[in-house]
Amino acid sequence: MKLRNIISAKDFNKDFLDDIFSKASKIKENPGKYCNCLINKIIALLFFEPSTRTYESFYRAAKNLGMDIIGFRKSYGTSLEKGESLYDTIKMYEGYGVDLIVLRHYSAGAAKYISEITEIPIINGGDNGREHPTQALLDAFTIYEKFGKLNDLKIGFMGDLKYGRTVPSLVYLLSNFNNEFYFIAPDLVQIRKEIEFYIEDKNIYYEKITDMNKVKDVVKELDVLYVTRIQKERIPDPMEYEKIKGSYRVDLNLISNVKEDFIILHPLPRVDEISPEVDKTKHAYYFEQAKNGLFVRMALIYYILKNG
Ligand code: NCD
Residues 168-184: what's their mean pLDDT? Predict the structure, then answer.
């Protein structure tokens, strides 16, 4: 069945991924010329939290498909400053004849809530620390491009696995396949229980690595290392942040004995968790990954608005 809203990566199945990835590959060959077929459609980009890549790539994606774009980035200058509710905001965009909403919001569950109060299809562009399903799509697309498959891979997730939203979504997506997961993080920001339960239920092999001295031994076995920054703005206690700050970093030494095809991904923005000298190595895939956001988001918009 076709997905109407993109709320959680738990909803993605293999058919859906095949469809999006084959479209995205085609689009990547010539993104400006894919189709101008959504010319009478309107997309609303409603971003209540900061964003560079997600906003810009959705903007560019919609433009390439010929769409009109409305919305805002942060609530500055909108009636939200006057205390307007999310409900009223959405009802108003409904009145303007919007065909698709991309919502980034600071409340976990905001996109789901919106999907229940409007008929307009919703894409979750990140809801607090819970999920970021379109990021997972471009992450997985990048892995698929490199390895030609999404199974039988050893995938490490390193960084803030507790407060970040990209890792949960990517783990949910990859749980459609048989892979091994290695969660590398200090105890304070280890993977959340709900995600452990999810993958245990799918019989997926995983390990948690909390001793950061052992990271190099783990990394040399991996195919993919997915790195994230510490989500400073989401950590409730500043003391907690102080304890984990600087506790991990990818540098040339860490990757000196990795596999030939090993790749490093990062949803970006990076702060200090990947040393810039790593950028020049053949293992650095994060800028290609960010670029893929445009093609994958074009494919996704097309999928929602065009297919039947
Ligand atoms: C991520 C996000 O917003 O969750 N960024 C992104 O969308 N590429 C990662 C982050 O902020 O750390």
Answer: 98
